[in-house]
Design brief:
Helix content is about 20%, strand content about 30%. It is α+β, with helices and mostly antiparallel strands and about 475 residues long. Strand 19 and strand 20 form a beta hairpin. Helix 3 packs parallel to helix 8 and helix 6 packs across helix 7. The protein has eight helices and 23 strands.
Length: about 475
């Protein structure tokens, strides 16, 4: 599996010959299964022939799976076919902590087990045997994650026999089908990891990333990040700084820049009373969400991939199986949208608004949808997660009472206050009291309730669209 550069890859080939020195090595690429020609016979560029060995390069279009064939230009009938199946496509790096790690867990929750291309490096040295869950995973064009001849591409991107597929399968398959290329997912997430103690240069998580990337050719085009539970309580600005440092490391490692290496942010989910994170609260998680949004919005090359603050925690902080699948799909959709190939999974976002008396009308920008609704398909009369403050309350200490809420249309949400404020206000969403219940979130949150806002973008394994993005305090004027 080779990372594409643009829509192709200059591939280095090599081999040997017998007693007769070839005049010139020609090569072509054919379909691995059918033998159909992909590229015509072409003389290798930058050739080297001598001492029984040859090498050279061939520019190969993205796609797969491929087989290489070579011949001596002076003896065109003597075609030699390579045995290795290979392709040119997208290599994706997935980093963070347990919620990201769990997107690739196989053999649980009724998931089918995937077939790995290579497994996790053993003891941090090279690529060697490992044990499930595999953290290197290939998602190809047809049935690479399934027993042969059991599923077609549409089934892989949806449901199988009533079972929920893991998030990485949705993510990889949607990318593969949209771009018509093979996809290699490198999930190097570490449970319980802190961004400032595990993911900076020289630390254990980063060292593993360097090994993984070196093993696949030292190049990749896409990174997904889902982390922050262990950094609960870290100030927003500090987290943004760490994210910028990490992105700089990733660009240096790949040899790419913000135009050619994209970093997708999956924002932090909720925390419940049963959370194992000592002292964690949704207020503290809100600071991390705010950092995620700020980094994704203001950093060239970064993008907001998916919101998860409606995810029902299976054990207090980890997403349940249905939400894992949905998150993987939404993250893939957001990159697909970034390339102009479909609607985004990022969800709609609030861009501003205005106040008239007790009514605050928020402006909503769609990310591929055409309508808004609550989780029950209604007009949002019981929305949660919004907070309103007097603009002078810069510490956000005393929220104003919201008397009612309503979705007014595809680009407008109304918050009606109990009492009209004297002047401008500050509004945020998902920073605390995330949609399903008060802070700290109770262990009995209800999924897909009337308390959250969604667009109407179709998401696999989901009766609702994409969740409204969280946002930190914005200034709303009016009278």
């Amino acid at each position: 599996m080779l990372q594409r550069v643009g829509n192709s890859k200059v591939v280095e080939f090599s081999g040997g010959y017998g007693n007769v020195t070839p005049a010139q090595i020609e090569a072509r690429v054919v379909d691995y299964t059918t033998g159909a020609q992909v590229t015509p016979w072409t003389a290798l560029s930058n050739p080297s022939i001598g001492n029984g060995l040859w090498s050279g390069q061939l520019n190969t279009p993205q796609g797969g799976w491929y087989r290489i064939q070579v011949r001596d230009s002076a003896r065109p009938a003597g075609v030699v076919s390579g045995a290795t199946r290979w392709g040119v496509g997208i290599i994706v790096l997935m980093c963070g902590q347990s919620n990201m790690f769990n997107l690739s867990v196989s053999g649980t929750y009724g998931y089918p087990t995937g077939h790995p291309l290579v497994v996790e490096p053993a003891s941090g040295a090279g690529v060697g045997p490992g044990s499930p869950p595999y953290t290197y995973r290939r998602v190809g064009l047809t049935n690479d994650n399934w027993p042969p001849n059991t599923m077609n591409k549409s089934q892989q991107a949806g449901l199988s026999n009533g079972k929920t597929m893991p998030g990485h399968v949705h993510l990889g398959n949607l990318l593969a089908m949209s771009f018509n290329v093979p996809v290699l997912l490198l999930n190097k997430a570490k449970s319980g990891s802190k961004i400032d103690a595990v993911w900076m240069t020289g630390q254990s998580g980063w060292n593993d990333v360097e090994l993984a990337v070196a093993a696949v050719g030292s190049d990749f085009e896409l990174v997904y990040w889902l982390q922050g539970e262990s950094n609960s309580g870290m100030a927003r600005a500090v987290m943004v700084g760490h994210l910028n440092t990490l992105y700089s490391q990733l660009k240096t490692l790949s040899g790419r820049n913000s135009d050619t290496l994209k970093m997708g942010i999956i924002s932090l989910g909720p925390v419940s009373l049963s959370s194992s994170y000592s002292g964690a609260s949704d207020t503290k998680f809100g600071e991390i969400r705010a950092a995620h949004v700020e980094f994704a919005s203001n950093t060239p090359g970064a993008f907001f991939a998916a919101a998860t603050h409606d995810s029902m925690a299976s054990d207090g902080v980890h997403m349940g199986a249905m939400y894992q699948a949905r998150t993987g799909a939404k993250a893939a959709m957001s990159y697909i949208a970034l390339k102009g190939r479909g609607p985004s999974g990022a969800g709609p976002r609030v861009t501003g608004g205005a106040r008239t008396g007790v009514d605050i009308d928020l402006d909503v920008q769609q990310a591929g949808g055409t309508a808004l609704a609550d989780g029950a398909g209604g007009n949002g009369t019981a929305l949660r997660g919004f907070r309103v403050f007097d603009a002078t309350d810069t510490t956000l200490a005393s929220p104003l009472q919201i008397a009612s809420t309503m979705i007014l249309g595809p680009d407008k949400i109304r918050l009606r206050l109990a009492v009209a404020p004297a002047g401008s206000v500050l509004v945020d969403y998902g920073m605390t009291n995330t949609p399903h219940s008060p802070d700290p979130i109770s262990a009995a949150i209800t999924s897909l309730s009337e308390s959250a806002v969604y667009d109407n973008v179709a998401v696999v394994n989901s009766p609702v669209g994409c969740l409204l993005q969280p946002f930190a305090a914005i200034h709303i004027t009016g009278s």
